[in-house]
Give the backbone structure.
Amino acid sequence: MSAILDIKNLTVTLQQSPGVVPVLENLSFSVKAGKTIALVGESGCGKSMTALAIMGLLPDGFQIAGGSIALEGQDVAKLPGDALRQLRGNRMSMIFQEPMTALNPVYTVGDQISEALRLHQGLSRQTARERAIAMLRAVQIPAPERRIDAYPHQLSGGMRQRVMIAMALACRPRLLIADEPTTALDVTVQAQIFDLLREMQQDIGTAIVLITHDLSAVADITDEVAVLYAGRCIEQGPTATILNQPQHPYTRGLIASVPHLRLGLAAAQPSEALEEIPGMVPGLGKRGPLCGFAPRCRYSAGPCLEAPPPTTGTGSHQVACWHPQGEAA
Amino acid sequence: MITDILVKIANAALLLLAVVVLNFCLIHAAPGDPAQVIAGEMGGASQEVLDQIRRLYDLDKPMLHQLAIYIGKVLQGDFGHSFYFNESVTKLILQRLPATVILVLAALSLAVLAGTFLGVLSARKPNGLLNHFVTFFSLAGYAAPVFWTGLMLILLFASAIPLFPISGMADVARPKQGAAYILDVLHHLVLPALTLAIVYMAQYSRLSRTSMIDALRADYIRTARAKGLSERTVVFKHALRNALIPVVTMVGLQFGHLFAGAVLVETVFGWPGLGRLVFESILRRDYPTLLGVLFFSALLVMLANIATDIAYRLVDPRIRLRR
C-alpha cells in the first residue's frame, strides 16, 4: 500500500532581519492509509510548524526551503495557492489545539461544518445541512438536529472538539492532522476524543498525523512515532519499539518523565521521584549543526561536541545519536 | 431578547423624565429673565406688561410649581408655546426634525460604511501604502474641527469646483414634491453630510482597522483557512463580522456627539434642522423651544441606543443568547 503522506527532507526556514534561521531540518516520514503517526516533542521543537507546512498555512516569514511533501504522490509544497486551497479541508484537513477559540463565535456550528461541504463538494444549502447533521451524529453529539443551530459558546469544550472533528472529516479527507487535539480537555474527555478519532479513521481510512507531547496518548492509538527535537527528527520507529526500547537519551527522558499510576499493592510502596530533563529546547537561531540535545544530555561526550550525530538503526527504527542507549539503561 | 429590549425601553423612559427635570432646573438656574426678553421683542414695556407676561407663561409661580406644570404638559405631548417664534413648540420641532434626522443618518451611514471599508482594507496589509494613506486621512479628519472642514469644503465647491450647492436644503425656486425634490435635497445633502461624516469616518477606520487586525489573528481564522476558503470569504465573512462588534458599540456611544456636531454643520451650511433651532432659541432665551429641542434630542439619542443594542445582538450571538 502506498503512502498517503510522504515527507522527504523537509526544511522550513524563518526569514529574520540578520538572515535565515532553520526551523525544521531534513524531516522525513510517511503515513499509510488508515495508519497514524505521532510527532512527539516538547514545545518549540517544530511539531506545529510541520503541520502548518503540510497544510500550506505557514505564518508570514516562514517558508519551505527544501524537500518535498507528497500527498498521494502530489508535491503540495510546490502547488500554487489556488490548487492548495482546493486540497485544504477536502483531501487534507486539520484539527487544532484549542476548541474554545478555533471555532468562529458568530456562526452556528452547522454553518461552519456545511461551509467546507458546499465549497468542495458543491452541495446545496439543504443537502450540506443534512450531511452536517449526519457528521454531528457520527461524532456522537446528542440531538444533532438541534445542536446544528447552536453557537460554539453554547457547547462544552469536548463538544466543540467533536464539532471540529466533524468539520475536519466532513469531506472524508485522505489525511487528517490533529495538533494536540486533547490538550485543552479533561482527561475523561481526552480518551473519548481519541476513541472517536480511531473509529472515524477505521470508517474513512484516513491517515492521521497526531501531534502531541503526551506519550501516554501515543501508546494507544498510533502505529509509528517520530520524536522531534529542535527542528530535527532524532528517533523514529514503530510505536511499541520506541516506547519499549527507546535509544535516544531524549526519548528515554521523555518516557521517564511520564507519571505512572500505581494501584493495589504497589500503591503502598514509596514512589520514585519523577524524572525530568534539565534545561530547555534551544531557541531558533541558536542551533548549530551538532546534536541539539547535547547540552542537556548526561551521556554527551567526545564526538557529540565535534560532529553532527549519525543516523543509525535497524529496519524501521532509526536514531540520530552518537551514544544510542541499549535495552539496559 | 424581547424582555431585555422592553426593560431597556422602560429604563429609557425613566431616563427621559430625569432629562426633562434636569434641563428644566439648569435653564432656570441660568441668568436672564425671559419676561424681559419677550418685552424687549415687543418694543419696550412697563412693569404692568412684564407682570402680565409672567402671569401668561406661569413665570410668577415658584419653580417647583412651574416644573410640575411643565411635566404635566409634557406627559400630554404639549411642549408649550415659543416666546420668540410665536408658535407651538411641537409644531416647530416637527417641522425641523426631518432635516436633522436626514443629515445625521446620512453622515452616520457614510462614516460607518466608508470608515469600516477603509479600516478593513488597511488591516489586510498593515504596512502597505494604503494603510499609511488611511492613517494620514484619519489623523487629518479627526484633528480638523467640523466647522473648519465645512468652510474648506464650501470654499472648494463654491468657486473651484461648483458641483454641489453650499447652502440650504432645497432650491427655493422648485416645487417641494416629487422625485425631483428628493434628488434636489440629496444634492444639497452631499456637503453637510460629508463634513459631518469626515470626523467619524476617521474614527471608524481606525477602530475597524484595529479590531480587524485582531480578528485576522484569531484561531478561527486559521480554521477557516484550513477549510480551504478563499481569502475573500475568510476576510469578509469570518473576520469582518467579529471585527464589527466594537464598531457597533461605538456607533451607539457616538450618536449623541454626532447630534452636537450637527448643530455646527447646520449653522455653517444653513441646513434648516434642529441644530439651528437650538442655536436661535438659546440666543433669544426661548425656554420652551430650547427645552423641547433638548427633549427631542435626548429621545433620539435613546432611540439610537436601543437600536444599537438590537444591532449588537444581531451581530453577536453570545449576547443574544445569554441567559
Remarks:
- Residues 2-75 of chain B form one domain.
- The mean pLDDT of chain B is 85.
